[in-house]
Structure formats: structure tokens, C-alpha cells
Amino acid sequence: MEQRLFALQRLSAMAMAPFVLVHLGIILYAVRGGLTAAEILARTQGSLFWIPFYSLFVISVAVHVPIGLRNILIEWARLSRGAASVCCFAFGLLLLSMGLRAVAAVGGLLS
Hints:
By secondary structure, the chain is an all-alpha fold. It has one domain: 3 helical TM bundles of succinate and fumarate reductases (Up-down Bundle). The chain has helices spanning 2-32, 37-44, 50-75, 81-106. The model has no long low-confidence stretch (mean pLDDT 92).
């Protein structure tokens, strides 16, 4: 189990890398261009590119972060592997649901 989680965390990190780079590039472009939040939102709403882009970003984060947090809880908080796994699985589901809800809202899919 530990080896699979190790591999999954590394794979999710590799998946996240291009998302992080593009996201940071967009932030720099928006800030330097003086765009307001409303202007950025107007550009992203209903986009057939940004909705799947940020959905995949959220999914990769929801996989990556709980695995790292699980390791921290085991090593530093001295939680058992089982307890840490349950806590982090629940946290991963929370990240996933909040992230996808944000993507849906920004993408104009929620009214």
C-alpha cells in the first residue's frame, strides 16, 4: 500500500506540474495586464478549455495533497496508518468537492 501511495503521489505531482506553470503564467499575465477579477471571470466563464483544465488540476491536487498530509499525520502526529488514511481520504473528498464546485461556478455551470 505504501509503495502504491508513493507512486501515486509522484504521478499526481507530474500531472500537476504543467497545471501549476500555466496557472502561475496566467496570474502573472492578468496582474501585469491590470485585469480585474470581473474581467478574468468574464474571460473564463463557459470556456471549453478552462473548465476541463481546472477540473483536471483540482483532481490531481485532491489526489496529491491527502497522500502527503497522511504521511505528515503518521510521522509527526503519530496517528496510526488507518486513522490517518481515513482522515486524509475525507479531506481529499472535501478538496475535490470544493474544487469542482469552484470550477463549476467560475465556468458558469452553476446558476
